[in-house]
Target: FMN dependent NADH:quinone oxidoreductase
Amino acid sequence: MAHVLVINSSISGDKGQSTQLSQQFLASLPAGFSTETLDLVQDSYPHLTMTEMAAWMTPESDRTDEQKALAALSDDAVAQIKKADAIVIGVPMYNFGVPSQLKAYFDRLARAGITFKYTETGPVGLLQDKPVFIFATRGGLYQGTPMDSQTPFVTALLNFIGLKDLNFIYAEGLNMGPESAEKALFAAKARIAELATAIAA
Model:
């Protein structure tokens, strides 16, 4: 795990629980790795447009300057994913879904012919698999219920592009009183320690 890509999407910044748990996870890893951090709130992607998708589908040699700039949003995001040996994603729950900033980022990762392709037997992800650690923080209790729209969406999207070694770390009930929050964070930290031990081994 020489290079770790860290993706934060909390509108609370460094005070966000998903961001803080991600940082605790990084601090628990063995020394000797480098990190690259994306703050999707400070450096947000715009909503995807047909103009941008058209830039992807235009041969690189034929792109206008505007198309080159638009295509670079996705090209750079995919290059960062490819470069990483492991990925850490902070995913707070807002209104039962992933942050819109994270959705806009994911939209740049799903590229036909680049990160996935369709075959006679269905879609195939083209990215080399690598560990992904997803810190899902929620104010209520949703894991394993129909109200958890995040887990199936994130799983489907990442699997679709070839990333299947997914590790979800949940911290739920954070807005259900101090005792509930403390219990959730304790369980998340225990899971972090478990993962860090497995990586070190």
